Amino acid sequence: MAKLITLADVDNLATGSAFLGTGGGGDPYIGSLLCKEAIATHGPVQLLGLEDLDDDANVFCAAAMGAPTVMIEKLFSVEEAHRAVSALEDRLGRRATAIISAEIGGLNSVMPVAYAAMRGLPLVDADGMGRAFPSLNMTTFNVYGVSCTPMTIADEHGNVAMLETSSAKEAEDLARPLAAAMGASVSLSCYPMTGRQAKLAALPDTVSAAIAIGTAIRAGEKAISPVNRLLGALRASRYYGHAYRVFEGKIVDLHRDTSSGWVFGRCVIQGLQSSSIAEIGFQNENIAVRVDGVLKAIVPDLICIVDQETALPVTTEALRYGQRVAVIGCSASERLRTPEALACMGPAAFGESAGYVPIETLCGADPAG
Amino acid sequence: MAKLITLADVDNLATGSAFLGTGGGGDPYIGSLLCKEAIATHGPVQLLGLEDLDDDANVFCAAAMGAPTVMIEKLFSVEEAHRAVSALEDRLGRRATAIISAEIGGLNSVMPVAYAAMRGLPLVDADGMGRAFPSLNMTTFNVYGVSCTPMTIADEHGNVAMLETSSAKEAEDLARPLAAAMGASVSLSCYPMTGRQAKLAALPDTVSAAIAIGTAIRAGEKAISPVNRLLGALRASRYYGHAYRVFEGKIVDLHRDTSSGWVFGRCVIQGLQSSSIAEIGFQNENIAVRVDGVLKAIVPDLICIVDQETALPVTTEALRYGQRVAVIGCSASERLRTPEALACMGPAAFGESAGYVPIETLCGADPAG
To answer: How far is CA B293 from CA B247, B277, B279, B324, B348, in A?
Structure first.
């Protein structure tokens, strides 16, 4: 049965994908405005289950790349996304029959909805991360056999670059400085795939999951606290079922270092009723959380800092000294936990010396959960 | 009548183009080895006069871009050049029928000879600068109506990037960081043009001119000093006829700052029999020379530092404290002196506050000439 993404879903999708952004991915708020405008103009977007996709469908990604701090000042446009996608269509000699998100976390979850609306194409209910990651190569598309290139990058001046590389990592390494030179905020299209390839490499149901998570945070049962509603939605989801309130407290220290196009840093949170300390390291996204030095969750499992009262996700760039927050951790898809996936987006890819341990092992007996 | 570039011409071409490199363009020595190997393997290269080119010829550039210091460690290959050119041929759906140099100064004068030999194609006796310039947009191709893009960039790992920009300056601005990310030494193909376009936009006879200049420096009449032989060859040439020995002396001060992919700096030379001082500013290429504060030559006219005894050109990166050198200045093609050309590659493009004055005005009455 075909589902639709309507105007009423956009805010929930934006909030849910901000959670799945795990601190990064760019604030989806501005993208959600574009998305509403596109749906208002072109009508709602059909959300197509991965299993309902034709094997010979032409599935194209529309994504944004850049520095989150620039993205909120230099707005994306659907026209820019179209320049990237249509340049890739021209290169491949075939037209998109469906759009897919590369990344369901952050801005990249809403931009493809706006673009699908403009094209009158269905959006596949799936993505390549099930969360946000800082690099273009950190996708299940890449891990499970879809080539990242040919890839196209478009800026707002009408310039288009195309890359053909021998690996997704090399595509990332070339796209990043190019995006910086193009103004630190660009549209791109990559990982062009057939329906058959999408079924093998994409993570199904993540767009619906983001909408369900956002709905729980924003509009659930009033008698239940937003954080508990969030935990309930996660526990009912396909991937994020091992969900924990890892810590609660007040931000007492914060370091950010913006270099090479990323924000590196750490956030220290002190418990309100205890002397316990949680420390979260991030590279755009939150990478690992330790409580009193003990590891509680680590990438690719999800770590998200949310407002203690409203459960609204707080992005890395919005963290502020003194904020009262809850740290929510939850499991990633099993497809991010395989040896080949961990080699691409596990702890070592972020310079973490700790090996990967599933959150349910680290927190399973935790009474806070 | 068809001329050939044979093994015997390569050293002369390399020396002549080192002179026309005006300090930059990369040392052609290593390129000359590749060139000799290619000619030894594939035979000599036909040098085709611009006037003999068919109007509907498909003329492709094969060029190198990068940091000269890296270029001498990470060798170019003809295969890499071929990846760039053939990707552009694929994009345009037509095959090269002739090869042209974008830049006759430095390394980019010999690489196209090697590539033309490998392809069995003629090399056009022309280029887009009549010298070397630090930026891709500083060509007569650009000034006189040929689009710089589509442009392709290839590295030694098999990665290829393609750019389509609204201006040659934007192509330069994107290609430079991309070249850095690809290892600071890449092959590229740009300014694809027809024979008709080449006749309108290229500077004819510059390959022959480089060979003649190199021959005069390396192998002329023994009774005449190399510097005087060089001046004689310049005065007999089509463009470089206003040629002057601007200064002679010893290098007493030298500043180099490598940033954003260029070498910026200045070289101070003290006269041997006088207290006069010459100061030369450079951005890869020498930009302006002043003697005791008085301007003697300025870009786009050519300023080259040569060994005082042998007249062998000294590149920016080979300048050394204590070297005894002569500073040779000569006129550029009139097509580099038009208002539209000066806007692209005149003094202001290099941050020089002085306006352009032809070298024959500045040095015409100079007894040293």
So the answer is: 13, 8, 8, 21, 19
